[in-house]
Amino acid sequence: MTTTVTQLVFIPAPVIGHIRSTIDLAKLLVNRDQRLSITVLVINPPSGSRSGSVITTYIESLTKKPIERIHFIELPQDETLPERDPKAPMTFVNNFINSHRKYVRDTVSNMISQTGSCRVAGFVVDMICTGMIDVANEFNVPTYIFFTSNAAYLGFQFHIQTLCDDHNEDVIELSNSDAKIPVPGFMNPVPTKVFPSGFDTKEGLDYVLLITRNFRKAKAIIVNTFLELETRPIESLSSDSRIPSVYPVGPVLNLEDDAGTLSESDVISWLDIQQPSSVVFLCFGSLGCFDEVQVKEIAYALERSGRSFLWSLRQPPSSEQTSRAPGDYEDPGVVLPEGFLERTASIGKVIGWAPQAAVLAHRAVGGFVSHCGWNSLLESLWFGVPVATWPIYAEQQMNAFGMVVEMGLAVEIKLDYKKDLFDGKSNIVTAEEIESGIRRLMEDDDVREKIKEMGKKSKATVKEGGSSYASVRCLIDNFRSNIT
């Protein structure tokens, strides 16, 4: 008897962090069930962008080491991009992604027309690719959203949409106030100062409402989180009949790709000679970078703290670049205080891009100053490394609030710091604030114990008998039910 192959179409967003998470989810699924086959449709960023080259390099590395039953197809791109308005960046993002719908349609048509026992059971689309639901509907195929952030923030998005659509609330005015509001799934009222960037403008809010309304059209939402970490938000989502079924499947992490890179560098050698849990690691994600004034404040704080440090210092993109992705300095000394590198040579190391997971895994690392991207927070939990929060963009302020106030798993440098990715504007965090945060990070034993305990739970949940392990099984059964 021939086993019917369950074919899934994955469409990640053209952002390296989202693509990595999506492919890690794909690997998890095919490893759990031999009947699954996944085709990943890759949308490359606009031609010539630095982030595009990072994604291309990553996809090429995957194709050199083929993954059984995961296939990659890079979608063509229109020669003429949608109109880009600096005052409406998210409109451009949405229009750019949707300009690939015709290519998705053609690709899936070809897949279906091929003979064999393969049937498309579902589209799994990134949380910012919800326009692809229309394409899935044309093929009478259900859509699943892969929400690469956490359950609390998912609930927050639904709540904001409800306030707008059902209660006619002026969320823009609310976002620009100093209010605190109750949100389902949160124990504490949520301050408007930690609302993500964009909720205070019509263009940004319209975009959030568009994708959140589309979430409700999906058959289910897959979330990279786990029940033991976000019990209250997950239960809140599951109790609302207007929200599709939620599958917490995390932590979905890739802890292998960076290991080789790290061992080939001198970073590992430097960490090897440091005392256990003595090093503060500063890393701000794939888009995190600061101007010279802020860099100097960080440097003053590190020097005054006297703590050993490993600092991933990235160079902001120039105004001529189409990409927002930072690069590495040829000489970081040009933006650091004079003599800083010499004075701290015995206790610190300044590097460019960092293999983050591999660094966090090292016994010498005792604290993590982070931008609070969700992948980074899951990695810190997995390795039991406490975090000092310095959110920058997207929903990172909400993540920081959750980690510090809701769960007590982090200490605060800032909760409400925001940097506009499109014009670079931000406030300055002072050396005094940074130094104080670093001291609390390295000295707060309660937070350290809590995060180590949660780290044990994060490892247990993905093993047989764990809640995420069971959730993945239910999700696969849901996929399979579409073709039986």
From TrEMBL:
Molecular function GO terms recorded: UDP-glucosyltransferase activity
Lineage top rank: taxon: Eukaryota
Pfam families xref list: UDPGT (PF00201)
Protein name: Glycosyltransferase
Family: Belongs to the UDP-glycosyltransferase family.
Function recorded in the entry: May glycosylate diterpenes or flavonols in leaves.
InterPro entries, alphabetized: UDP-glycosyltransf_plant, UDP_glucos_trans, UDP_glycos_trans_CS
Keywords: Glycosyltransferase, Transferase
SUPFAM superfamilies: UDP-Glycosyltransferase/glycogen phosphorylase
The species this protein was found in: Lactuca virosa
